[in-house]
Design goal:
The structure is a single chain. With about 180 residues, the chain is an alpha+beta fold. About 20% of the residues lie in helices and about 50% in strands. It has 4 helices and 10 strands. The chain has helices at about 1-20, 40-45, 65-70, 160; strands at about 25-35, 45-50, 55-65, 75-80, 90-95, 95-100, 105-110, 110-135, 150-155, 165-175. The strands form 2 sheets. A 5-stranded mixed beta sheet has the order 6-4-1-3-7.
């Protein structure tokens, strides 16, 4: 009887420690940060996001061990709201979290991220054609390649558009012998 009681006491102790203990913590990494309000930002103020310092967050939660075993990164939702941005430049936006009800938040990192917003503009750029992956006798040469469309419109943040000089179209002949 003593051995049976000792066995059940040990099983009960293992159950309490591993299942019902509330002193456990677990860290979940690689939770993607979603950007909310970008549509309102673009349509309302004419701005666009063009750089974001972080795209993932790590979250440490505490709770019962069994509850921690039952959840994964997909049970968390991290986001930033950019709909309130009214001017271009650098902005520090707090990361908001939605966590499962069975656990409590201990910490998250980063707690905010840096984003850059700029005026959404458009411009027209020339098209340049390049050829690749072909073989040809030295006796022949290609003349100038003229695209059917000479220019294309591009739109986006002004800071990025200022770096675009041309659109490149690649004509890949897939290792053809010309």
């Amino acid at each position: 009887p003593r051995l049976i009681c000792l066995f059940f006491a040990l099983v009960f102790w293992i159950y309490v420690v591993n299942v019902t203990s509330t002193n456990s913590e677990k860290t979940f990494t690689q939770i993607p940060i979603k950007v909310e309000g970008a549509e309102a930002l673009g349509s309302g103020s004419g701005f666009a996001i063009y750089d974001q310092s972080e795209s993932k967050v790590s979250v440490t939660v505490s709770g019962k061990r069994q509850d921690l075993l039952d959840i994964s990164e997909s049970g968390f939702y991290a986001y930033i709201d950019v709909s309130g941005i009214t001017e271009g430049g650098k902005h520090t936006i707090p990361v908001k979290l939605s966590i499962p009800e069975t656990v409590s938040l201990v910490s998250s990192s980063p707690s905010s991220i840096v984003i850059y917003a700029d005026e959404n503009t458009s411009k027209t750029v020339p098209v340049k054609v390049e050829m690749s992956s072909y073989s040809m006798s030295d006796k022949y040469a290609f003349d100038e390649i003229r695209p059917a469309i000479n220019t294309v419109p591009v739109s986006g943040p002004a800071a990025l558009l200022s770096r675009i000089a041309a659109a490149r179209a690649e004509l890949n002949l897939d290792s053809a012998w010309v």
